[in-house]
Amino acid sequence: MAERFVEKPKDPISNWALIGVYVFNDNVFDAVHKIKPSWRGELEITDTIQTLLDQGHKVQVKKVEGWWKDAGKPEDLLEANQLILGDLVHNNEGIIEKDVKISNVLRIGKGTQILEGSVLQGPSIIGENCTIGPQTYIGPYTSIGDGSTIEHSEIQNSIVMEGASIECDELITDSVIGRNVVISKNNELLKGKRFIIGDQSKVVI
């Protein structure tokens, strides 16, 4: 059972940290209405939890074993992606055409097609129902969400979320690309793109 939670205290009372993953029932709504902004001027989730405790509700914690990463910034997301992909187990449920080169550990989802002339380097993961290629380079340390289409492009150390469409004849690296983003090309030749792009966006480069 929990006793007390403190959000980013000026004077830390322990070396423990909250990892920011919570599960509540509907009692949380009443507790939220009873709290006031903290010294930071924000309504703190930890004050809400403390109110639940004070009201006699059951609050439990689970200690996380192993590594933990605060993924609040794009570079943190990419580092977490690398850590996760480092433990990847090879598994191919897709369709791979001839003249495709694969190296290191890859996971390829059902319904995904890897077209001719493409190069896949792991550790990387490609979701279900994707089309990769032709003439496309993926990886290492790249995660591609379900339903994405990537052709005539090169992507390294990046996270591409579901439904993205990329065709740009360019190197994209160290990027986080949101859901249903469209990246297309024009006739200007530019090298080495880095993107932090939100959902439903369209980019022409």
Record keyword descriptors for this entry.
205 residues, alpha/beta, UDP N-Acetylglucosamine Acyltransferase, domain 1, seven-stranded parallel β-sheet, 3 helices
- Based on CA atoms alone, the radius of gyration comes out at 22 Å
Q: What is the H/E order?
A: HHHEEEEEEEEEEEEEEEEEEE
Mean pLDDT: 87
Largest sheet: 7 strands, parallel
Name the assembly state. Answer: single chain
CATH fold descriptor of the largest domain: UDP N-Acetylglucosamine Acyltransferase, domain 1
In helices, the fraction of residues equals: 10-25%
* CATH homologous superfamily (4th level) name of the largest domain: Hexapeptide repeat proteins
Tally of DSSP β-strands? 19
Shape: elongated
Arrangement of strands in the largest sheet: 1-4-7-10-13-16-18
Q: Count up the domains.
A: 2
Low-confidence stretches: none
Helix segment tally: 3
Distance between the termini: 54 Å
In words, what does this structure look like?
The chain has helices at 27-32, 45-54, 74-85; strands at residues 91-92, 95-96, 101-103, 106-108, 113-114, 119-121, 124-126, 131-132, 137-138, 142-144, 149-150, 154-156, 159-160, 165-166, 171-173, 176-177, 182-184, 196-197, 202-204. The strands form three sheets. A seven-stranded parallel sheet has the order 1-4-7-10-13-16-18. It has a seven-stranded parallel sheet with strand order 2-5-8-11-14-17-19, with no helix packed on it. The chain is elongated. The relative contact order is 0.09. With 205 residues, the protein is of the alpha/beta class. It has three helices and 19 strands. The chain has two domains: 1-68, no CATH class; 85-204, UDP N-Acetylglucosamine Acyltransferase, domain 1 (3 Solenoid), CATH 2.160.10.
